[in-house]
Design goal:
Layout lengths: L1 H20 L2 H14 L7 H23 L11 H17 L5 H36 L1 H13 L4 H11 L5 H17 L1 H11 L3 H16 L4 H59 L1
Helix pairs in contact: 1-4, 2-3, 4-5, 6-7, 6-11, 7-8, 8-9, 9-10, 10-11
């Protein structure tokens, strides 16, 4: 009964957090508004910390979702409530299962840890996959930029144009270019390109950014350089694929030995061993 009571208390606490999480934004806005209205009387340190913590965690979560390819920032409001709701459903399912009390406790703890950790791990895996995919599409972007520059467009105008035209080709690459173009209008092109290399930290993107920055600093012709850089990136991609294919033979040796050579050895030696055992027994 003590275990059941503790479980009900935990379930009630989870329900309390779910109900309060849906009112998180309204409460945060009310606190922020109260602090702004009461600045003349001096806001308390607790209110300041509460508002700053809410804004900081919300911004950090929004950035995680954007880096993982989920560009709707409103989803960040439902991330933690969804976690808690899933944890509650799992807890209810475990509670009404036919497991023993110890197994219920272990299953509940494992499910809670999984609900807390697994979504963040999936976001990180998706971020890395998105970085690799966006970087692999860069040669096509360079070819299109080279054509636009040859027609007389500036690099800023090229980025602004491609931020709309790339939507049908690759939505993730289009988002990065659009973000770079919008940032260039405020911070300058060089700073916007540096931010792009930080968001997608791959050698291909760094080469692209350094090429454009060199053009901005020295005024060199960039159209032919972009075409050559795109060709070099394609060659690197081909070499990378060939390297993976070359490693495949070494990786296949382990299952070859375990699942083919050992059974063949057993099939060859088994009849002789059986015959020897029969002769010895006879």
């Amino acid at each position: 009964m003590t275990l059941v009571g503790a479980f009900l208390i935990v379930l009630g606490a989870l329900l309390y957090f779910v109900l309060n999480s849906f009112r998180y934004e309204q409460r945060r806005k009310r606190i922020a508004g109260y602090i702004e209205e009461e600045t003349s009387r001096g806001p308390t340190t607790i209110n300041r910390l509460l508002v700053r913590f809410g804004k900081g965690s919300q911004k950090e979560l929004e950035q995680k979702l954007v880096n993982a390819g989920y560009y709707n920032k409103d989803w960040a409001k439902y991330y933690f409530p969804a976690k808690i709701l899933i944890a509650m459903l799992i807890a209810i399912a475990v509670f009404f299962s036919s497991l023993s009390e110890l197994n219920k406790m272990l299953a509940g703890v494992l499910a809670l840890v999984g609900v807390i950790i697994i979504p963040d791990l999936l976001l990180e895996v998706r971020r890395k996959a998105l970085v690799g995919k966006t970087s692999s599409q860069l040669p096509y972007l360079l070819d299109m930029m080279s054509v636009c520059v040859q027609t007389g467009m500036t690099i800023e105008a090229t980025l602004s144009y491609l931020s709309k035209e790339l939507e049908a080709f690759d939505g993730d690459l289009c988002y990065q270019i659009k973000r770079t173009s919008d940032s260039a209008k405020i911070k300058g092109l060089e700073k916007a390109l540096d931010d792009l290399s930080e968001r997608i930290p791959t050698p291909a993107v760094r080469s692209f950014v350094l090429t454009l920055i060199q053009n901005l600093q020295y005024g060199t012709s960039v159209a032919s350089v972009l075409s050559d850089l795109a060709e070099d990136m394609r060659k690197i991609q081909v070499l990378t694929v060939e390297e993976k294919v070359g490693r495949l033979s070494a990786k296949m040796s382990v299952p070859l030995i375990l699942f083919i050579m050992f059974p063949i050895v057993v099939l060859i030696l088994a009849p002789g061993i059986m015959q020897m055992s029969i002769n010895i027994g006879g």
